[in-house]
């Protein structure tokens, strides 16, 4: 009965908070304002870096970057391809963060998903595509999910820090990739280069829009963005995870299992990152290589999630923005000849810095303590009369106390 009452009160509070149009608009503008400022300030500082390292005008460099990202259909096509794995790792971080967990292991989970998908896609030939492709996608999800599950069990059972566990598992995943592409999965036709055999055609994802190279992974990532929203805001398990993430004590008082929510959150977060690694291999690269993970998909996904404020639509647009930065940086470097594509990495790092700085400022402001003046402390509390005739203490007296 107590659990039902607490759940009902929490649901009513969430519903009441969403009723005010003005308050809702203010929250929306606030959620847009900080990312917008972070992007603008990062671009301004990036301009200083361009001026200091080249002879090209920042406006010219950014113009080429914009054209390379959104200038035409081919540019937007390249942006979408680069955005897909980033959105998956951003969803991974967002899901865990909504549950009160900081998942820094999306990089390793991404790798293990790619490894598991490669094993199924290469080692099981002669399967029909209707069986082979779903099995490969499932293997990618499970590969990343098992890494997340291991993290969750160690955290819940032994109280280990998920930060340390996930970072160490990233290194382990990298070494496992090196072992398999130099050993069991190494392509026998290319004995001098550490890479797997090509993925079977029945396990590949292909383009589906005429005139564009974007693959059906775009449809899959859009489906999982919707599932991310539906699970967290429309299911009991998602509600429990959000409550536990917001206030573990309240969740435990309501009868929610903190350990179960933690393990489920890390399992699903790992699966999302692993699915992103799977799709990157079977749709873009075609085989597993040591150079498959030069781009830090996992850590860049953290920036995408933070910029998107852990919101489904925010993560989508933030992923497209970061994909555009990566795609446009290549054109900027080619067309200017003296502006390095690393400027895009600098801009991404600055965005993370300013978003994180906003969060740090909010925490400091929340716990800021103002020492009361002597005059206010010595002031006698003023009694007021409530509706039922009982005396109450004014807010000023409470602050003085």
Uncertain regions spanning at least 5 consecutive residues: 361-365, 379-401
Number of helices: 16
Q: Overall mean pLDDT score?
A: 84
Count of distinct strands: 2
| Strand order of the biggest β-sheet | 1-2
Give a quick account of the main beta sheet: strands, pairing sense, barrel closure. 2 strands, antiparallel
Helix fraction, binned, reads over 70%
- Which fold name corresponds to the CATH topology of the domain at 75-333? ABC transporter involved in vitamin B12 uptake, BtuC
Please indicate the percent range of residues in DSSP E strands (runs of 2 or more): under 5%
Spell out the helices and strands N to C.
HHHHHHHHHHHHHHHEEH
Per the principal axes of the C-alpha atoms, what is the gross shape? globular
CATH C-level label of the domain at 75-333: Mainly Alpha
Based on the structure given, which CATH architecture of the domain at 75-333 is correct? Answer: Orthogonal Bundle
Kindly provide the radius of gyration, computed on alpha-carbon positions and rounded to a whole number of angstroms.
25 Å
Q: Which structural class is indicated by helix and strand composition?
A: mainly alpha
The N- and C-terminal alpha carbons lie at a distance of 36 Å
